[in-house]
Amino acid sequence: MLDDVLIQQLAAELEQSEQTRVSLEHFSKRFPGMTIEDGYRVGRAWVALQIASGKKTIGHKIGLTSRAMQISSQIDEPDFGTLLDSMRFTAQADQVLEIPASRFIAPRVEVELAFVLKAPLQGEGVTVDDVLAATEYVTPAIEIIDARIEQFDRHTKVMRKVFDTISDNAANAGIVVGEGDPRYRADPRLTDLPWCGAILRQNGAVEETGLAAGVQGHPAIGIAWLAHKLAPWGESLRPGQIVLAGSFTRPVAARAGDLFEADYGPLGCLRFRFV
């Protein structure tokens, strides 16, 4: 286990990466004895720096929700991170949202559903039914992931490990949600969530398609799991928070000039361009 001084040092390095847009080398390479708990401690220390600077927590993200990603990461459960107000981008219906590419290092786009809560979820006994009852609405959401810790080692080209991803706030850097279309607010009780799907187009070409069933069979399963995982920290999911349930497509790399359209059919469409 890494000591508290080192945890704070690594969090400061992540903050420097955030400011300079220069990726760091893998923490897991530098500290081979690093554990998943160490990763969460680093990530939380980095979030604490953000909050100290005036940013606010608006929710959480869940990652590594597909079985294939868990196997490749050699873990048997998802991971999670914190959403901050500075990460939120709002796409107006029938308009193209412009997102500054300079905000990111190596941005990639993932297609997800987000749960917006109206009641708290706390403790290890939270069920899927509890999640649905506590959800005000489910909405299309795009997660922008990034690489404050580089995805591939600059020398060996080895992919980063789960310890690195967790340290890096589960790789979260942005979230796109919609406004101005009533379809963006799906009733969780009246919507067959596993069958919610999306088509992701990049510059007019279909890059990805997927169903929300790809997120552990039902996207609400991850929300219940997160309530369980937060309980030992004395934390809970709170009313008004946004919770990203996990991606049901592969990440798609984005560059300045790229135009994306995420078409969720009956749940509406999100359009955005990196500029």
Number of distinct helices: 7
Gap from first CA to last CA: 41 Å
The averaged pLDDT comes out at 95
Content-based structural category: alpha+beta
State the total count of DSSP E strands.
13
**Helix content percent band:** 25-40%
- Largest sheet entry: 8 strands, mixed
The shape, in one word, is: globular
Strand content: 25-35%
Indicate the low-confidence ranges by residue numbers.
none
How would you portray this structure in words?
By secondary structure, the chain is α+β, with helices and mostly antiparallel strands. 25% of the residues lie in helices and 29% in strands. The chain has seven helices and 13 strands. It has helices spanning 4-20, 27-30, 36-52, 67-73, 128-134, 162-167, 219-230; strands at 57-63, 79-84, 88-92, 97-99, 108-117, 135-145, 172-179, 197-202, 205-211, 242-244, 252-253, 259-263, 269-274. The strands form two sheets. Strands 1, 2, 3, 5, 6, 7, 10 and 11 form an eight-stranded mixed β-sheet that branches. Strands 4-13-12-8-9 form a five-stranded mixed β-sheet, with no helix packed on it. Helix 1 crosses helix 3 (36-52) and helix 5 crosses helix 7. It is globular. The N and C termini lie far apart (41 Å). The mean pLDDT is 95.
